[in-house]
Amino acid sequence: MNRRPPPPARRPSAPKVPKRPLAELIAQRPLSPDPTTSPAPLEVRAPTFHPYLFRRRLGEFPQSAAPGDLIQLMLSSGEHHGWGLFNPHAEIAARVLTSQPAMPDADWWQSRLASAVSLRREILKLDEVTNAYRVIHAEGDGLSGLVVDRFGDVLVVEAFALGMYQRAEALLDLLSPLCGTQHGVLRCAPLSDEHEGFNAEPVGSEFVPPKVTVQEFGTQFRIDFAGGHKTGFYCDQRDNRKRLASLVGGKSVLDLCSYTGGFAIQAKVLGDAADVTGVELDETACQLAKENARLNKAKVAFVQGDVFPYQRDMLRNGRKFDVVVLDPPKLIRHRDEIEEGKQKYFDLNRLAMQLVNPGGLLVTCSCSGMLDVLEFSRMVAASANAVQRRLQIFDRTGAAADHPVSGNCPESEYLKVLWCRVEA
Length: 424
Known about the structure:
The radius of gyration is 23 Å and the shape is globular. The termini are far apart. α2 packs parallel to α4, α9 packs parallel to α10 (338-354) and α10 packs across α11. The chain is α/β, with parallel strands linked by helices. It folds into three domains: 22-98, Archaeosine Trna-guanine Transglycosylase, Chain: A, domain 4 (Roll); 106-210, 2-Layer Sandwich (Transcription Regulator spoIIAA), CATH 3.30.750.80; 212-423, Vaccinia Virus protein VP39 (Rossmann fold), CATH 3.40.50.150. The protein has a seven-stranded mixed sheet with strand order 15-14-13-16-17-19-18, with helices on both faces. Strands 1-3-4-5-2 form a five-stranded mixed sheet. It contains eleven helices and 19 strands.
């Protein structure tokens, strides 16, 4: 007798927590908790070492806890589990800061920030090669929901979590002396309204410049804080840009989704490529890429347009390149976008394969954390099979070392770069 399968488990509904005025939600707060009050306890029914605690893992939300509050995480047995930042409006309702018994205070935050800066300045010695690098990499530095990039004399904070946004100004006050910077910019992450229940316009410290010029291995790039995506520049591809330059001498290069020209300009300046073309849909980014090329006296042709029709036009015209770089923006932001995003990656790579001269190189990237490197590799291989090109993946790399990966958060290893030779 066939039994009907059990119905799928119902997803826990969001608790009915009244929304607070936006001004109250985004108000800045100190790093040390109020000594006259005790943090509210929150039951963790399904404990994990992961820094994300989704609402389905938690018990009833404490009525006394406000969005962004520091809370004590307790197991059902009453045992201490850790400390975290609480947001009842988010699917990730608690972000774990530490599992230690001691409550995080200003000294705890200072120690965490100093450790992150030490990695970049003392161990990696990034100041010797660039003044544009990631200072805080969220979960990779034990600060879930917080990203900070350094661009010359400016620190740019991007907050993915409400609790981190509320503490951002206090964190900047601690970080600036550690980094030797003078200015700060604070912005919330894309889709923060949908994910965290708040939104806010970017704000900057007094006299913060609208643009700065940074250098990477001697090549100069301008950062536009008003019009840039994310924090304004993709520091994660720094080492990959340098490696690409070592492979392109005297060759033709096509940089698809070139943003402000990082790969394209380094291919010309550091790599002495014969000719370089960059294609970028965003008009503001494309204009900044042209400005960066002029800044470095680099002859690079930047085209403002969609890479899908551009590639099809090149195929119809019979144009091919010795090296093609494909670095699209994040195509998978939610779990319900996985299949659609995979199809976009497949289609982009299928077209890019056909633009590579026999024996040429394809450097293809994905910054979607929900697509792991093995699945991305299989998808790229399938796109080669679809157009009957033989593919050799000779290396896999990721983000630069200033983007460390947390052992408890596999998603923090988000960037995947495949280095491929494409044969006829």
